[in-house]
Amino acid sequence: MIPGTNTGAVSASAGAYQVYAGVAAEDCAKAIELWRDCGFGSSSAERDVARYRWFYQVNPQGEGQINFMRQDASGPPLGFLGVGCRRWLLRGESVFAGVLVDFVVHPQHRSASPALQLQRQGRERATATMTFLYGLPHTKAIPIFKRLGAQYELALVRYARVLRAAVYLRRLMPQWLARPLAAASDVLDVASMKLRLVFSRNRGAWHDGFDARFDELWQQVDKSSRSIGVRSREFLQWRFGAQPGHQYRTFVIRHRDRDALHTYFVCELIGDQLIVKDFLSIGTRADVRDGLLLLCLQSIKLGAAIVSIQACGDAVLAAALRSVQFIERDRRWLYASVPEAARGSFEGLAWYLTQADEDI
Asked: For residue 210, which of 25, 107, 236, 295 is within the disulfide window of CB 3.0 to 4.6 Å?
């Protein structure tokens, strides 16, 4: 949830509000009540509580920070800003980053002044212990992020590939014609993908959970010139194995004669769309290309009509996606704020991002 304009908003200067720190382990009920009063969260209070506890209290990388806003010391909370704790590597050096989430302001107070104050003071608190902050705001919140200053604006590009031609053909022609054309197109598409894999040395399989091989893959990733969030086995198990309300499966790629993994795709099937939430590889472009083809074939077996992936900063992945008919669909913007004293650490770094780096 983000603060937007509201013609019924209370007009007040920044000084009319107070931003104060909450305690993640104690203020769950207060946060959930505020979220629900503001129309934020899911349709189930129990689900919101589970997500709050997962994200703010049991993150193995550190407890999250929570910030409330009110008009006076005795007043109810009118705004909330969360900052999740994230282990990050800058040229292989470990630092703490903060991901800005759950930005919500009560409908009667959604004007620029309180929203800016909540963000500004919440960020000031976070940067006392975190090297930098980042967020992927909703469109209405982008002006707030820009006004507060962002040293990096990075595009998280969403690529998608159609697996069942009927998804588009039925929009362009009568059903009686679309159905046979789609069936023929799908047969040819599958045959083409299989043909490209005839001499491949790669094999793919679904894998539940995260074993020691994921740590081994992570340790081999070149981090020397990257800004990248830690993707250890422990992190992956928390982020995808323990997240309430979601069911993920991981498609792993290895060479035919080896047990070690060189690529993985963490996936979630929602309706007829398979969404890749995280990707990591130490393989070649050919390995990644084969992995994508194998994933597409498996996705068809699961009933998916579309495969999509959001990523930033991996040239090998981008080239492989284009080579197997993934098309750029849209972009989301990540804004990263780095205190002046730490900006030298980021010079010349290539950022690597996927949906693993947010909270959804």
From this structure: 236
